Structure formats: structure tokens, C-alpha cells
């Protein structure tokens, strides 16, 4: 099977602190992979390296076989990697429709953005997305007036609009009510049918909902173990990392 | 949205557009036809200067209000435009003669960069293009290294000081501290300080203001404008959506610089002189104050702010010359603390609704606009009331 992402001996060194330490990772295209790990395990740095925000000290990242070294963020995004941030990041002063329209723009160069009018295909895509994320009624209100959950949905909609091959989702359930968490979980599962997804999560209930395949556990910048959710949950090393060493 | 509603909305938009065009034409008529008849020459000249300052305010609004980059160095571009036109005026001489100040410093040969300014079309081009290129280059160097926020402001101010000191020290090139006087020179055979020339400059200023205003409207209304707002609000998100913000910021900064150049040229001929004083730090900061007073990211606010502050300055300093600076300081403090969105922002967000309510045109909103004007809530309420 095709590998969508391969990471070899990746080390990221922040002034002597190794946020990632000789990490190896790979995933098949079409897979939904959940990454868990205690605080400071390097989960967010891991996403930063894939999206080009942080350059690796050593090792390399291959996306569909292409080395991502020294490629700027916006080009990586155009290659087909979309990222959702931990807190929803949408453009608060723009309306929901305008938020989506900016991402749907096919040619993102300065002059074509300036001179070309939105194509009818793009307008239709925006309308379709509004329906998918269930924000049709609020299409014309500024994103600042949306609730937290609605912002999360809008941001996920903006990601889908990029039609990425690989979606990186950073703690989508953080700060949501139980009901909203389940909605977001269902949205991610439906997206997984057409995209490869890496989801980082803390909330074990949520992980159980979405982790149908493999789960990867990060600890101190390296992969601690990998496997099905039940296997990982019963792995003594994982229990130790999460709960501390059992008393002898 | 159902089609009926969409058509109604479209009609409303068209009507608003017509009203707006009517207002603009009316204002142009007042400023370009009526005021020149009513006002004495020196008042008209003053108004022309203020209107040309509001052009540079539009440029600042573009880069600061919309894109979120606070430039404290627009004096550079303003002065470059002014020097360009002043050099052309200085060269209106019989063949073989040099502008008289050169003889003071023993310069016999015209410096090479003066030659293009013999031609009027080249001068007009240069007044727009040179400040644009300088701004573009400065912007490219700064934005490529992802410098923003306070650091950007400091760098633009430092650049301003560099230009100020350079122009001050170059007697043999552009007459140093003394600057270039335009009032005693001719343009197309007219004395630049004559009533006819000044009236022409004034009319050109009004036209330039309208053209620049519509250019800014064009830039800020479509996708491009929304992307500028997006860069201001969350640049990282813009990058991860596949846009390279650097190009956009460089282009906007260059356009903003070119606009300042036009303003500088018009201001210079209506002032009668250009000196390196135009590149002093307080003047560039004052430009920012105009935009803050009028309201950021509202183009009309930049114009209103400039008119208010400058007219206030004129009248107050005529009657109480010693208190004007206190007034200016107080005005800035009041705007920052009480009206963070400026006068236009206050009108749009508060006064307009209040007025409509007093006139009985709109229900008063008791809770939050986000709740009471929420389309979903309104829809549900209507359905409940039907049942």
C-alpha cells in the first residue's frame, strides 16, 4: 500500500532540548491515525515539523515520497497537507461565507487573487461546504459571533475546502461539550472516508470513538508504542507513562 | 437563502450603490465647484493641502487599518513624491542654466538624477513609481524575514530617520536643509503661486482624492481585501491555507507608498516648498493619528479624520496658538480610550443604531445583537409564533 507520510530518524533540537528524539513513523494513505501522549511528549512539535513551521535538526519527512525539507508552509499546504489548530483559528472579522471563500480560491497568487472574480464552481463549493458543516443560516454573520463549537466546525470546513490529501487535526475535542464532541467525532469519521487523517487527542473517550485502526503513543519525543486501541491501553509502558510507576 | 430574498437583497444593494454614487458626486461638486467660488485664495490653498494629506491617510489606512502593519515611515514616500515634482519645477529654466542654489555650493554640472525630471510625463510617473518601488523594496526585505508588529513600526521609523538625515546633509544634490522652493517657479509657463495655478492644483487634488479613494475601495472590497483582513487577524492561518502573505504585504505596502507619493507632490506645490522637515518623525506619527481618529479600516474615516484634525488645528491655532498641541494630544488620548474604532466606527456600531431607535425605525436590542439578530434564533421564533 502507498505510504502517505514517512518520517525517518526525526530529531528537533530547541537549544539543547530535544522536543523530538529520533522519531520514526509512517502511515498508509487513507488511514485515520490517532496520536496520544502525555503533556510535553512532542505532539504539537510533530505537527509543526510536518507543516513546515519548524525545521528538523536531523532526519527527514516524506510526504507521498517527496522530501519536505526547506519547503515553506504555504507550499506544503498547496501540496495537500491541511492543519487544524488546537484552538479554532478562523478569521473573526470575516463572515462564515468569506472565510470559506478565501480557502476555496483555486489560484492563490497575489495578482490572480486581485484580478480574478470568484468562479461559479468555487461559489458552489462554498455553498456545499456551508451545508456540510451546518452553518447555512449563519453564512453572512461574522465568525466572531459563532460559538466555540461552530468555530471548530467552520475551521474543519475550511480544511476540507483545501481538499488536502492529509489532514492534521490537533485536539479537536478540547473545550467542547459532550454532545459537540460527538458531532465533531462523527464529522472526522466521515472525513476519514476520503482523506488520510492524523488526529492528536487527549480525551480518551473521544479517542475510543474515532480510533478504528492504529493508535500511536508518543513519549519524550519518540514513539513509545503503536497498535490497536485495546492493545495500547493494556500496554504496561503506556500505563506507566500516563499514571506513573505502579507501587512495588 | 431563497431566491426571492436574494433578489430583494440585490435590489437593496443596487439602491445603496446609487445613493452612494449620488453622495460622492454631490461632494465632488461642492468641493470642486462651489468652494473655489466661495473661499478666498489662501483658504482654498489650505483646504487643498488638507485634502492632499487625506490622500496619504488613505494609504496609511490600507497598510495599517486593513493589513495591520503600523507604518511610522510614510514621510519617506510623501517627501519623495514632493521632491520629484519640486525638481521638475526647479528645472523650468532657459537652456544651460542650473537652479540657483547650485551656484552657492559651487556645483557646475547638474547631478545625473535630475535629468529625467526635465520631462513632465516622466516626473508624474516618478512621483508615483519611485515611492512605490522604495516602499516595495523596504517591504520585501522586512516581510521576507517575517518581521511584524512593533518591530515593523520601529524599522519604518528608523528608515525615516535615515532618509531625513541623508536629505538634510546633501546640499550639493538637493539643497539639504533648505529644501526646494516651488512658489517662485513656473509650471507650463504659469507662476506656481498664481491663483490660476493654485486653483488647478486644488481641482487636481480633489480628483486625485476621488480616484485614490475608489482604488482603495476596489482593493479592499473583493477577495484581495478580505485576504488583507485575514493577514491582519491571523497570518499563520493564512499560510497554512496555502497563501504566501509576503507577496500580498509587499504589494499593499508599495501601493500605499505610491499613494503617499501622489499626496506629497500635491501637498508640496500647495505649500510652496519642500524640505527634509517633511520627513520628521512627528509628522509621520500625525498621519497615523488622522486614521485613528477617523476610524481604522474604514476608508472614509481616514479622510474625515484628516479633515477634522487639520481643520481643528487651523482654527484653534489661529485663535489660541499655544494650546493646539495640548488639544492634539488630548484628542488622541480620547480616541484611543473612548472611541477605539474612531469616529466612523462609533457611528457605525453605536450612534447609527441609537439614531434609528430614536426615530422609531428599529427595535431596541435588549440583549446581544449576536443573539437577537441571529438568523437561526429569529427563524425559530417566527416558527414558534406561527404555531
Describe the structure.
Chain A has a domain at 3-91 and 164-243: P-loop containing nucleotide triphosphate hydrolases (Rossmann fold, 3-Layer(aba) Sandwich), CATH 3.40.50.300. Helices cover 38% and strands 26% of the residues of chain A. Chain A contains 10 helices and 10 strands. Chain A has helices spanning 43-50, 73-79, 96-104, 110-115, 120-132, 148-161, 178-192, 204-210, 229-234, 236-243; strands spanning 3-14, 17-28, 32-36, 58-63, 66-67, 81-84, 166-170, 196-200, 214-219, 222-228. Helix content of chain B is 74%, strand content 2%. In chain B, a hairpin with a 2-residue loop joins strand 2 and strand 3 (190-191). In chain B, helix 12 crosses helix 13 (299-319). The radius of gyration of chain B is 24 Å and the shape is globular. At the A-B interface, helix 2, helix 3 and helix 4 of A face helix 9, helix 10, helix 11 and helix 17 of B.
CATH names the topology of the domain at 3-91 and 164-243 in chain A as Rossmann fold
How far is it from the N-terminal to the C-terminal residue of chain A, by CA?
44 Å
Instruction: Give the spatial strand order of the biggest sheet of chain A.
Output: 6-7-8-3-9-10
Structural class of chain A: alpha/beta
Strand percentage of chain B lies at under 5%
**Largest sheet descriptor of chain A:** 6 strands, mixed
Layout of secondary structure:
The complex is a heterodimer of chains A (248) and B (387).
Chain A: E1 3-14, E2 17-28, E3 32-36, H1 43-50, E4 58-63, E5 66-67, H2 73-79, E6 81-84, H3 96-104, H4 110-115, H5 120-132, H6 148-161, E7 166-170, H7 178-192, E8 196-200, H8 204-210, E9 214-219, E10 222-228, H9 229-234, H10 236-243
Parallel strand pairs in A: 3-8, 3-9, 6-7, 7-8
Antiparallel strand pairs in A: 1-2, 1-4, 4-5, 9-10
Chain B: H1 3-38, H2 41-66, H3 74-90, H4 100-104, H5 120-144, H6 150-169, H7 171-174, E1 180-181, E2 186-187, E3 190-191, H8 195-221, H9 223-233, H10 235-240, H11 245-271, E4 273-274, H12 281-294, H13 299-319, H14 324-338, H15 342-358, H16 369-372, H17 375-386
Helix pairs in contact in B: 1-8, 2-8, 2-11, 2-12, 2-13, 3-5, 3-11, 5-11, 8-9, 8-11, 12-13, 12-15, 13-15
Amino acid at each position: 500500500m502507498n505510504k502517505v507520510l514517512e518520517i525517518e530518524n526525526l530529531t528537533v533540537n530547541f537549544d539543547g532540548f530535544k522536543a523530538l528524539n529520533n522519531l520514526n513513523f509512517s502511515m498508509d494513505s487513507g488511514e485515520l491515525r490517532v496520536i496520544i501522549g502525555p503533556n510535553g511528549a512532542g505532539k504539537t512539535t510533530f505537527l509543526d515539523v510536518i507543516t513546515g513551521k519548524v525545521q528538523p535538526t536531523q532526519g527527514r519527512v516524506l510526504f507521498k515520497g517527496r522530501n519536505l525539507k526547506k519547503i515553506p508552509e504555504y507550499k506544503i499546504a498547496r501540496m495537500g497537507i491541511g492543519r487544524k489548530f488546537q484552538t479554532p483559528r478562523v478569521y473573526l472579522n470575516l463572515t462564515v461565507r468569506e472565510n470559506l471563500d478565501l480557502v476555496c480560491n483555486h489560484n492563490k497568487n497575489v495578482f490572480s487573487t486581485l484580478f480574478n472574480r470568484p468562479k461559479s464552481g468555487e461559489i458552489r463549493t462554498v455553498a456545499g461546504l456551508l451545508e456540510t458543516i451546518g452553518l447555512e443560516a449563519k453564512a453572512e454573520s461574522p465568525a466572531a459571533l459563532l460559538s466555540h463549537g461552530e468555530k471548530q466546525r467552520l475551521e474543519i470546513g475550511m480544511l476540507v475546502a483545501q481538499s488536502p490529501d492529509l489532514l492534521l487535526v490537533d485536539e479537536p475535542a478540547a473545550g467542547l461539550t459532550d454532545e459537540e464532541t460527538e458531532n465533531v467525532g462523527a464529522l472526522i469519521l466521515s472525513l476519514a472516508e476520503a482523506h488520510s487523517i492524523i488526529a492528536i487527542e487527549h480525551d480518551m473517550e473521544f479517542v475510543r470513538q474515532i480510533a478504528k485502526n492504529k493508535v500511536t503513543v508518543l513519549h519524550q519525543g519518540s514513539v513509545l508504542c503503536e497498535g490497536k486501541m485495546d492493545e495500547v491501553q493494556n500496554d504496561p509502558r503506556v500505563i506507566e507513562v500516563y499514571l506513573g510507576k505502579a507501587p512495588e | 437563502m431563497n431566491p426571492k430574498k436574494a433578489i430583494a437583497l440585490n435590489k437593496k444593494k443596487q439602491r445603496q450603490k446609487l445613493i452612494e454614487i449620488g453622495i460622492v458626486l454631490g461632494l465632488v461638486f461642492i468641493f470642486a465647484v462651489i468652494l473655489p467660488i466661495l473661499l478666498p485664495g489662501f483658504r482654498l490653498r489650505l483646504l487643498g493641502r488638507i485634502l492632499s494629506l487625506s490622500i496619504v491617510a488613505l494609504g496609511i489606512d490600507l497598510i495599517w487599518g486593513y493589513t495591520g502593519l503600523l507604518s511610522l515611515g510614510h514621510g519617506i514616500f510623501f517627501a519623495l513624491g514632493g521632491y520629484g515634482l519640486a525638481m521638475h519645477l526647479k528645472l523650468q529654466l532657459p537652456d544651460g542654466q542650473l537652479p540657483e542654489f547650485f551656484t552657492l555650493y559651487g556645483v557646475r554640472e547638474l547631478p545625473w538624477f535630475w535629468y529625467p525630471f526635465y520631462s513632465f510625463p516622466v516626473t508624474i510617473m516618478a512621483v508615483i513609481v519611485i515611492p512605490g518601488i522604495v516602499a516595495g523594496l523596504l517591504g520585501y526585505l522586512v516581510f521576507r524575514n517575517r518581521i511584524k508588529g512593533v518591530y515593523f513600526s520601529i524599522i519604518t521609523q528608523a528608515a525615516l530617520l535615515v532618509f531625513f538625515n541623508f536629505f538634510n546633509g546633501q546640499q550639493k544634490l538637493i539643497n539639504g536643509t533648505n529644501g526646494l522652493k516651488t512658489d517662485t517657479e513656473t509650471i507650463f509657463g504659469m507662476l506656481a503661486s498664481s491663483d490660476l495655478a493654485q486653483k488647478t492644483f486644488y481641482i487636481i487634488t480633489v480628483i486625485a482624492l476621488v480616484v485614490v479613494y475608489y482604488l482603495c475601495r476596489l482593493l479592499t472590497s473583493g477577495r484581495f481585501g478580505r485576504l488583507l483582513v485575514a493577514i491582519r487577524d491571523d497570518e499563520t492561518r493564512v499560510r497554512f491555507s496555502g497563501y504566501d502573505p509576503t507577496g500580498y504585504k509587499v504589494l499593499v505596502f508599495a501601493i500605499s507608498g505610491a499613494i503617499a507619493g501622489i499626496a506629497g507632490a500635491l501637498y508640496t506645490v500647495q505649500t510652496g516648498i519642500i524640505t527634509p522637515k517633511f520627513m520628521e518623525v512627528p509628522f509621520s506619527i500625525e498621519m497615523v493619528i488622522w486614521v485613528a481618529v477617523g476610524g481604522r479600516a474604514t476608508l472614509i474615516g481616514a479622510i474625515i479624520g484628516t479633515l477634522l484634525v487639520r481643520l481643528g488645528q487651523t482654527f484653534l491655532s489661529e485663535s489660541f496658538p499655544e494650546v493646539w498641541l495640548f488639544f492634539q494630544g488630548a484628542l488622541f488620548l480620547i480616541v484611543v480610550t473612548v472611541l477605539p474604532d474612531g469616529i466612523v466606527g462609533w457611528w457605525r456600531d453605536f450612534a447609527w443604531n441609537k439614531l434609528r431607535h430614536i426615530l422609531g425605525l428599529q427595535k431596541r436590542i435588549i440583549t446581544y445583537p449576536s443573539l437577537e439578530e441571529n438568523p437561526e434564533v429569529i427563524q425559530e421564533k417566527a416558527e414558534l409564533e406561527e404555531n
